[in-house]
Design brief:
This protein is mainly β. The chain contains no helices and 14 strands. Strand 5 and strand 6 form a beta hairpin. The C terminus is likely disordered. Belongs to the NifZ family. Keywords: Nitrogen fixation. Pfam families: NifZ.
């Protein structure tokens, strides 16, 4: 196993890094570093003798976290940043209509199920609205209000008549 990155290399994390119970002062599942953040390699080690793990110092977050090699790319490699992440609540900027049927209107709450970074038209998302999942370009979405209900609390179409 030869490390791809060395001490001092600038790297970008490609997925959100959450506490797995090993970060001091954080609760399991807390977001430590958001995908796309850039940091510097401070050390290289192994985990279970078959995985390279890098200690990466993220200056903007003032955190040093362990990242597996597959979670990192060089900071100068191509990267498509996204406004939203998995599980974030969003609302459409315009009415989303299919065959004359309005699926979601501005103010309706949806939840991001998947971030699509490599679409020819730019970043897009699979967004779940009650009763339907749609692929929506980023430019058509806004953040839902912080007090918006969780999608699990919203009725699906078949439950709406109860």
């Amino acid at each position: 196993m030869r490390p791809r990155f060395n001490f001092g290399d600038q790297v970008r994390v490609t997925r959100n890094v959450r506490d797995d119970g090993t970060f001091p002062g954080a609760n399991i599942g807390n977001l430590l570093v958001r995908r796309g953040s850039v940091g510097y390699v401070r050390d290289v080690g192994t985990f279970l003798q078959d995985q390279l793990v890098y200690s990466v110092h993220f200056f903007d977050q003032q955190k040093m976290v362990g990242c597996r090699e597959e979670e990192l790319i060089g900071a100068d490699e191509p990267w498509n940043p996204s406004q939203f992440e998995f599980r974030e609540k969003v609302t459409p900027k315009v009415a989303l209509v299919i065959d004359g049927e309005t699926i979601a209107s501005p103010g309706d709450v949806g939840q991001v199920l998947k971030v699509l970074r490599d679409l020819p038209s730019g970043v897009g998302y699979h967004v779940r609205f009650p009763g339907r999942t749609l692929q929506i370009p980023e430019k058509l979405l806004d953040s839902a209000p912080a007090d918006a209900p969780d999608l699990a609390d919203l009725p699906d179409e078949e439950d709406a008549d109860d």
